[in-house]
Design brief:
- The chain is α/β, with parallel strands linked by helices.
- Helices cover about 40% and strands about 25% of the residues.
- It has 13 helices and 16 strands.
- An 8-stranded parallel beta sheet has the order 5-6-7-8-9-10-11-12. It has a 3-stranded antiparallel beta sheet with strand order 1-2-3.
- The longest helix has 19 residues.
- The two termini are about 20 Å apart.
- Bound molecules: magnesium ion.
- Magnesium ion (MG) binds next to loops.
């Protein structure tokens, strides 16, 4: 089989309201969809959801990288996924979301050729996941009210709470949220690089009394030593890394030096499902578990993320919730997976099983 053409299209996703995290306020995302055609008449679809302050990419840079890669990719066999990553990495460093678009299209084609859903192509551990829902930074009273609503009205059992602007307010937010949702709801926190070492040790120590199970990316992305240090200082609460982990090399370093208990894999950081699977294998060998997170992605990349979680035993957590905050939850694409409250179940359709055409 050979790749014959790659079509590139920009799409815009609007949020129902702006979302605040430690380093930014976000109200929309401009993403890139690609359609990869083959000489066997099977088309594969992929997506890039660039986020400049995490992956160093914009929608324009993704388009120019894809146009640069296109002549090399045309004529390649879409099943030669390792060779395709080797070509892409040989052409340009980083640019995880541009590479992810190509990678997802290859897995979509592979699944369609096999007549199997991507979660089975990847490993087939399970076909459904329990997902968390994220609460953005706001006045602690408002955050607690939102937490209560997600639990009581929307049926969520795991909450991810954004933090990292003001550590004292963060501690107060955790107290109010725990009081609002009761003892049985699982809570984790994402500081998005907002703390220094002293803040992080203080926050983790205080959060423990409210049953926070893990805190994600306390320190700047480059501070592996600091992460190992805070992990050695505080017991009974897990340290997770997100912005620090862009690829399998970062994962190996974080695991070897004891920087994390959990790694947050994102397809847009690492370049898609092939590298994500490598990150998970490295983590698993070190006794470190994984979560799959997301950027502001359409149903396409979200389905890929959910498929990855479902397919692997060592990926125990799913944070693929950004679509719940869109004006259009389906982003114009039917299929992929169904949702009942916090339980997402993948469809047994070939590839990603999505209804897309352009
Ligand atoms: Mg994060």
């Amino acid at each position: 089989m050979k790749i014959t053409d790659i079509k590139i299209e920009k799409v815009r996703i609007n949020l129902t309201e702006p979302f605040r995290v430690a380093f930014a306020e976000i109200s929309y995302s401009e993403n890139i969809l690609i359609k990869v055609s083959t000489d066997m008449g099977i088309d594969g679809y992929g997506e890039a959801a660039p986020i400049a302050f995490v992956t160093g990419e914009t929608s324009d840079s993704v388009v120019s990288v894809l146009n640069m890669l296109k002549p090399g990719l045309i004529g390649m066999d879409p099943l030669d996924i390792e060779a395709i990553h080797s070509l892409m990495d040989g052409c340009i460093l980083g640019n995880g979301s541009a590479k992810c678009a190509v990678d997802l299209a290859m897995y979509d084609i592979k699944g369609k050729l096999m007549g199997q859903p991507v979660y089975k192509v990847l490993g087939g551990y399970s076909n459904s996941v329990q997902n968390d829902i994220t609460i953005g930074i706001n006045a602690p009273e408002k955050m607690a009210a939102e937490a209560k609503r997600h639990v009581e009205e929307d049926g969520f059992h795991i909450l991810k709470i954004k933090a990292g602007i003001n550590v004292k307010e963060d501690v107060r937010a955790m107290k109010l949220i725990r009081e609002a949702v009761g003892p049985d709801i699982r809570l984790r926190v994402d500081a998005n690089q907002g703390y220094d070492v002293a803040d992080a040790v203080y926050a983790l120590t205080e959060f423990r009394q409210y049953g926070i199970e893990a805190v994600e990316q306390c320190l700047p992305h480059w501070d592996f030593d600091g992460s190992a240090y805070i992990r050695s200082k505080v017991n009974g609460i897990k340290v997770m890394l997100d912005e620090s982990i862009h690829n399998h090399i970062d994962a190996a370093r974080a695991c070897k030096y004891g920087c994390a208990d959990i790694l947050n894999i994102k397809l847009m950081k690492c370049g898609g499902l092939f590298r994500a699977s490598q990150i998970n294998s490295i983590a698993e060998a070190y006794g470190v578990t994984c979560m799959v997170g997301c950027m502001m992605e359409t149903k396409l990349a979200t389905t890929a993320g959910v498929s990855l979680v479902a397919s692997k035993k060592n990926i125990t957590e799913a944070d693929c919730d950004s679509f719940l905050f869109y004006e259009d939850e389906q982003t114009g694409m039917n299929g992929g997976f169904t949702r009942v409250n916090d339980r997402f179940t993948l469809l047994d359709q070939p590839g990603f099983g999505l209804d897309i055409s352009f």
